[in-house]
């Protein structure tokens, strides 16, 4: 099938074609979703080359398991969850943990239109806060799923997510303060 014929297809159709070993259909899925997968991995703390490697591995796993994708959620969320889990496994395997209290010192930049750099803001969080926020808001994982993936108590995950989001709100909207409001930070 031609690429132009594939670009009009829904992700569920493309995944079904990929499950039948249609590499072109899966290539279209990769084209559509690879940047969001790499962006999530970067937000979780992966360096660019590592994010690219894990994204590639995630798409290989997704191709091998494409028959498991039922379209109950988006393909993008499904493959991002695969990538997030691969990153966490690799991170655990390499045992390069950073203390919870160690936060980045990177400054949050504002572009000429007054927009903030969310990636830079995420780097100011501790590693565990960044992971919890990224998994919840970037990979669409629930708090119990994050707790399982990180091997942390559920209450601890909820605390890290709340503390991380509070810090992001303070960084991205300093006038808002700790009292919060209707603002929502998402990844």
Annotation keywords:
2 domains, mainly alpha, Arc Repressor Mutant, subunit A, elongated, 187 residues
Describe this structure in a few short sentences.
The protein has 187 residues and is mainly alpha-helical. It is built from 9 helices and no strands. It starts with a helix and ends in a 15-residue tail after the last helix.
CATH architecture of the largest domain: Orthogonal Bundle
Structural class per helix/strand content?
A: mainly alpha
Mean pLDDT: 81
The CATH homologous superfamily of the largest domain is called RNA polymerase sigma factor, region 2, helix turn helix motif
Structural summary, described in words:
- The protein has 187 residues and is mainly alpha-helical.
- It has two domains: 1-96, RNA polymerase sigma factor, region 2, helix turn helix motif (Rna Polymerase Sigma Factor, Chain: A, Orthogonal Bundle), CATH 1.10.1740.10; 100-187, Arc Repressor Mutant, subunit A.
- Helix content is 63%, strand content 0%.
- Helix 8 packs across helix 9.
- It is elongated.
- It starts with a helix and ends in a 15-residue tail after the last helix.
- The model is unreliable at 96-106 and 178-187 (pLDDT under 50).
